[in-house]
Design the sequence.
């Protein structure tokens, strides 16, 4: 469903372009005061100086909204999540608070495989219902596109079910977000294959991935490339097979130890490499040169009490950095966009302008969608986050609080929390 909409008296704040913004380009935002943005059938058809619109309401075929001088940003793109899952892992969270590490819990049969158990014993309806609740929350924080991964099935049927649930949600008539699906069968080794990781890799390549590709269920393939999970060689093998099947590539890289996943992502020209807490300077340079988006997930580092990814080094080296939430039931049960902004700026030394680019245009780049989303420009989707303030610095200054008063998807106004005024 798409709409016709005119937003007037807006302060447009947007990166521009139809490619990722790398390095120092990330700080360049276009700001248009007293702007009008017109959306026709879901697509932006005008951005520029106000055209003397005076009245709210529906007339001349368009809904008219007075933004009262508040900031209008592109809808946020959350380019890394695991939002389709069964069960929850609050107990594990408490174990971590008491000192256990994420990997030690995983090595003792908890972690990802415990969500696999819950997801396998769930069904498509309840997975979708759980996901809808999460999507409603994302939408209220201004998210208009979200990536979601499989990886809690680790068998043919449940992996396909997770991906099918995402496809169905994406085809909902009144959808709040666009969903981009990623196949992450190589998320952990399931109990049927313990001690036989190579055999599991072959099973994915020979049995699961061809089915995923045949049904067009995933745009991307991702691998948890990590010590004691999938090695560099196993990751390469899976990604090569995925490429042959027409999927684009992502990688969970250098999250816990410096294994060299970032370098692998660069050598394979992956669309993005994600986490990157321990990426080496050499691999960061290789990513910048290869145009691989560095997707950083500060909420996960925060929740696991780990060091943050070296965002400053990456930007100063010329990388395109994206920010995403990593929403999942284990390492990071949060999809908070406000907290992502705060951590990126306070703890990773990104500027607010860089963080905005990272959550909009570069998030789109991490999904290979810069031609259609990620900025407020003619020809792109009418997806916006309208703030409750005329000062975009509130996105970080108002720490962890939601400054989005209206989310607009394809020219349709979705949320109105009735606090639409010039101060938060
Ligand atoms: O991105 N690190 C691997 N995968 C997820 C965590 C998934 C889970 O713990 O359930 C992540 O952090
Ligand atoms: Fe992840």
Sequence:
């Amino acid at each position: 469903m798409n709409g016709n909409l005119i937003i007037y008296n807006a302060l447009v704040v947007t990166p521009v372009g139809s490619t990722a913004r790398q390095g120092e380009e990330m700080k360049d935002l276009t700001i248009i005061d007293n702007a009008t943005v017109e959306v026709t059938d879901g697509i932006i058809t005008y951005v520029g100086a106000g055209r003397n619109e005076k009245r709210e309401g529906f007339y001349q075929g368009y809904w008219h909204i007075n933004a009262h001088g508040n900031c209008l940003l592109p809808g946020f793109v959350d380019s890394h999540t695991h939002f389709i899952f069964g069960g929850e892992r609050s107990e594990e969270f408490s174990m971590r608070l008491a000192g256990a590490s994420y990997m030690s819990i995983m090595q003792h049969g908890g972690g990802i495989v415990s969500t696999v158990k819950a997801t396998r014993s769930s069904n498509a309806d309840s997975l979708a219902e759980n996901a809808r609740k999460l999507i409603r929350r994302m939408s209220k924080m201004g998210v208009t596109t979200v990536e979601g991964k499989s990886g809690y099935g680790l068998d043919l049927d449940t992996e396909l079910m997770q991906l099918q649930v995402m496809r169905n949600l994406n085809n909902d008539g009144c959808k709040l977000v666009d969903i981009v699906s990623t196949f992450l069968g190589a998320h952990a080794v399931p109990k049927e294959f313990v001690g036989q990781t190579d055999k599991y890799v072959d099973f994915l390549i020979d049995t699961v991935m061809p089915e995923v590709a045949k049904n067009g269920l995933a745009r991307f393939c991702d691998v948890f490339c990590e010590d004691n999970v999938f090695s560099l060689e196993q990751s390469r093998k899976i990604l090569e097979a995925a490429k042959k099947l027409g999927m684009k590539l992502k990688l969970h890289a250098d999250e816990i130890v410096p294994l060299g996943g970032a370098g692998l992502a660069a050598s394979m020209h992956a669309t993005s490499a994600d986490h990157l807490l321990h990426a080496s300077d050499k691999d960061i340079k290789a990513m910048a040169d290869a145009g691989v988006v560095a997707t950083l997930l500060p909420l996960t580092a925060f929740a696991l009490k780990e060091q943050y990814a070296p965002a400053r080094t990456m930007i100063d080296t010329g990388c395109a950095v994206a920010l995403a939430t990593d929403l999942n039931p284990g390492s990071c049960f949060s999809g908070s966009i406000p907290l992502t902004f705060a951590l990126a700026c306070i703890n990773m030394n990104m500027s607010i302008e860089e963080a905005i680019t990272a959550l909009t245009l570069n998030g789109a780049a991490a999904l290979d969608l810069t031609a259609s989303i990620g900025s407020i420009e003619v020809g792109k989707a009418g997806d916006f986050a309208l703030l409750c303030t005329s000062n975009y610095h509130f996105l970080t200054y108002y720490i962890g609080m939601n400054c989005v008063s209206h989310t607009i998807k394809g020219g349709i106004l979705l949320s109105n929390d009735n606090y639409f005024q010039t101060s938060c």
Q: What stands out?
A: The mean pLDDT is 96. Residues 80, 82, 252, 326 surround fe (iii) ion (ligand 2) (CB under 6 Å). Residues 76-365 form a domain with the TIM Barrel fold (CATH 3.20.20.140). The chain has two domains: 5-74+374-414, 76-365.
